[in-house]
């Protein structure tokens, strides 16, 4: 029987899970798309989603044993003990001002929006920490690196922003990514199918584990976290500034991560895809739809798309690739001003990375080589890295990323060099 880490990542619209060995490739992969339409109730589906994914993984790889579990997820999502959820993309009213904290405005917004849940809940969690709590009974908060304290909270700032001592106690203590959270409880075992006593480790916020899972840990390395939204992340030796750039500490001490969020690129194309399917009366894959739009060896007849639909699709592709191009160039300009090396390539992660034509379109728009890794779900790879460092397989995050993040393919720009 093979041993593997069960890596789990909670996304905005789905939960992903995979058996990950000490290898760049996953043994088996599963995904559960949430059916709950109300964001405030989405966390109530996470245990169901985990159970469903585990059942699928057992069918795909019945000879694989689970050595440990690691959980990561979206943030700064806020969840109370009864599962009431304030998703990361929601922006409730808040009186918190003049703070770098990503959490304090959202915690204040949560207590104003869900007063009963706030005051009755012994603990208030972020996304992955809530699922960890359901599995182990251990309340905790994963702090990516010591420099993140000002982006989370301190006792003094909690007091300054109007949180009482009792309210502050609702926030669980900080632990490091990769920390042992506890073991699967009897209740969680019955709910999920996991073996009671299995070790559970802390992943972290999705963007942090994705940086590990793409090895974006050295100066000049850049990745595109593609999904419903896109996050362009660049590793730098010093903080850089520019329009739309949010610079945060890297998980690697002394390094920084400059990020630009493009909030709706994937979702915009998904809306267009839904429109096409309603008009043509059948389902069409993301890959085939892009192929038909750009007229590149589509699986079905190009006549599936009317000229109007194809034109609309070209507009969507042009707009979202232009947004990507603009984000990358903002980061390049900031590097020039800071006197540090510009990125000369990019790694793409997420479902979009599986679409060869779409990735080549991006590559051509950026005039940069784009790499796709052996496992495109970088969050799951990052969970594997954290767990295996803690278990002693590797001496450092950098060593683990070097061994567990490998390129499967490199796309080169088709634009002639003299036209770039």
> For the report, how would you describe the main beta sheet?
7 strands, mixed
**Roughly how many Å is the radius of gyration?**
22 Å
**Which regions are unreliable across 5 or more consecutive residues at pLDDT < 50?**
none
In the sheet with the most strands, the strands line up as 14-15-13-12-16-17-18
Please tell me what the overall shape is: globular
Mean pLDDT: 92
The assigned structural class equals alpha/beta
Q: What do you see in this structure?
A:
Helices cover 37% and strands 22% of the residues. The chain is an alpha/beta fold and 420 residues long. It is globular and about 60 Å long.
Please describe the topology of this protein.
Blueprint: E1 2-10, E2 14-20, E3 26-33, H1 46-60, E4 64-73, E5 78-80, E6 85-86, H2 104-113, H3 115-120, E7 124-126, H4 127-136, E8 141-142, H5 155-160, H6 165-168, E9 174-175, E10 180-183, H7 186-192, E11 199-205, H8 206-213, E12 222-226, E13 230-236, E14 246-249, E15 256-262, H9 265-280, H10 286-294, H11 307-338, E16 346-349, H12 356-366, E17 370-373, H13 378-390, H14 397-404, E18 407-411
Parallel strand pairs: 1-4, 4-11, 8-9, 12-16, 16-17
Antiparallel strand pairs: 1-2, 2-3, 5-6, 5-7, 10-11, 12-13, 13-15, 14-15, 17-18
């Amino acid at each position: 029987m093979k041993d593997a880490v069960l890596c789990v990542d909670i996304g905005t619209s789905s939960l992903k899970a995979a058996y990950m060995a000490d290898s760049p490739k996953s043994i088996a992969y599963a995904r559960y798309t949430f059916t709950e339409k109300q964001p405030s109730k989405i966390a109530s589906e996470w245990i169901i989603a985990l159970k469903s994914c585990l059942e699928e993984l057992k069918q795909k790889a019945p000879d694989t044993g689970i050595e440990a579990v690691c959980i990561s997820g979206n943030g700064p999502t806020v969840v109370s003990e009864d599962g009431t959820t304030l998703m990361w993309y929601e922006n409730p009213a808040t009186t918190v001002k003049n703070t770098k904290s990503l959490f304090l405005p959202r915690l204040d917004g949560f207590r104003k929006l869900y007063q009963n849940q706030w005051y009755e809940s012994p603990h208030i969690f972020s996304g992955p920490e809530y699922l960890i709590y359901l599995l182990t009974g251990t309340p905790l908060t994963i702090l990516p690196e010591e420099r993140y304290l000002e982006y989370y909270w301190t006792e003094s700032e909690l007091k300054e922003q109007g949180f009482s001592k009792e309210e502050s106690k609702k926030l669980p203590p900080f632990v490091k990514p990769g920390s042992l959270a506890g073991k699967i409880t009897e209740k969680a075992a019955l709910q999920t199918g996991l073996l009671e006593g299995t070790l559970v480790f802390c992943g972290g916020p999705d963007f942090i584990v994705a940086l590990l899972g793409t090895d974006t840990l050295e100066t000049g390395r850049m990745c595109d976290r593609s999904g419903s939204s896109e996050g362009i992340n660049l590793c730098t030796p010093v903080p850089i500034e520019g329009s739309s750039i949010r610079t945060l500490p890297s998980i690697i001490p002394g390094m920084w991560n400059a990020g630009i969020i493009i909030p709706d690129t994937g979702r915009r194309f998904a809306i267009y895809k839904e429109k096409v399917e309603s008009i043509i009366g059948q389902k069409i894959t993301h890959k085939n739809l892009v192929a038909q739009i750009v007229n590149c060896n589509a699986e079905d007849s190009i006549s599936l798309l009317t000229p109007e639909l194809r034109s609309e699709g070209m507009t969507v592709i042009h707009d979202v690739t232009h947004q990507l191009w603009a984000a990358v160039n903002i980061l390049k300009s900031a590097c020039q001003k800071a006197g540090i090396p510009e990125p000369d390539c990019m790694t793409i992660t997420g479902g979009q990375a599986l679409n060869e034509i779409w990735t080549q379109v991006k590559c051509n728009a950026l005039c940069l080589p784009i790499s796709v890794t052996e496992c495109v779900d970088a969050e799951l790879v990052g969970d594997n890295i954290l767990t295996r460092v803690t278990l002693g397989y590797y001496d450092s995050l950098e060593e683990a990323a070097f061994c567990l993040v490998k390129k499967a393919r490199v796309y080169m720009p088709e634009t002639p060099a003299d036209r770039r």
